[in-house]
């Protein structure tokens, strides 16, 4: 399944700017597996990035359509709560954003045309016919899951591998139902739970700061470990400068899960925006994301107003190249578990 990896490290797709083709190339060329982030990009940008990857192994990631769609009335209350923010930046109160599926269908067509080695999904389960089509095209398909129940459903739907995302993960929770309380089961326990009922390869994600963290997850039955936050401060990442600074200079001291920025639970550094608006936030991705986006755009590079996504291992972030990060993990993991990549 992951024979291409010389070290069992997968770079997490990070939509919204951080994942660049250079980052994906650097990780894959260093012996890990890079994933392009299809989320938020236009189909044209998505296709262009795939073409740029050449013939090296890599994966693409797509947001599955939301199963829970918020009504306008749900979003309206939060829009009222955000009025002081609109006023502060001199922007008009935005009209209620429409629900979109992030061009899901066109992105699947592009994946089918270009046939990357891997395709992963987050935010839910695509229809089984889509998984079948991708698999028939020779693409290995993974689904992000956050509970044992979701893992069972993903396996039933035809996933080739599961990404188990634990509560320490930076960015959005990939939970299938955005309106549910996010699962708090620690990642090693989640691995044990899923391993006891599934033989599928498992990729563990969430809160990995050090090679020791990764080794612990491999010992709990993961075939590979997916890392996001550590790559945010790599040279190749397209992370916003205030986000980088917040991670590297310790502008904030802790991470929390919040719906304040997007309506879907996500973990990030606890900043002023979260402190002011978390209590009023509602379920409602992607409409809330678009609405808050108007404030973020007006606020520019001020970390107080940006979503500073970060997992619980964020304090290990350093300025370094992506290859150095992969090597740091490889040296430790390949020494401790010489057969780890081979077993995958
Ligand atoms: C900035 C950021 C953006 C993310 N975007 C995506 C995404 O587009 N698709 C996805 O499947 N996961 C996304 N994630 C979640 C990661 O796949 C992964 O679960 C997480 O980064 C692992 O935890 P860690 O950040 O503590 O390493 C994102 C994470 C971060 C930090």
* Low-pLDDT sequence parts: 338-344
CATH topology of the largest domain: TIM Barrel
What is the subunit organization of this protein?
Answer: single chain
Q: Per the principal axes of the C-alpha atoms, what is the gross shape?
A: globular
Describe it.
This protein is 39% helix and 13% strand. The chain is built from 15 helices and eleven strands. The strands form two sheets. It has an eight-stranded parallel beta sheet. It has a three-stranded antiparallel beta sheet with strand order 7-11-10, with no helix packed on it. Helix 9 crosses helix 14.
How are the SSEs placed, and which strands pair?
Elements: E1 9-11, H1 21-29, E2 35-37, H2 43-52, E3 59-63, H3 72-81, H4 83-88, H5 104-114, E4 118-122, H6 128-136, E5 140-145, H7 148-157, E6 161-165, E7 171-172, H8 187-195, E8 202-205, H9 211-219, E9 224-227, H10 229-232, H11 241-249, E10 255-258, E11 266-269, H12 272-277, H13 287-299, H14 322-336, H15 340-343
Parallel strand pairs: 1-9, 2-3, 3-4, 4-5, 5-6, 6-8, 8-9
Antiparallel strand pairs: 7-11, 10-11
Helix pairs in contact: 2-5, 9-14
Flavin mononucleotide binds next to strand 9.
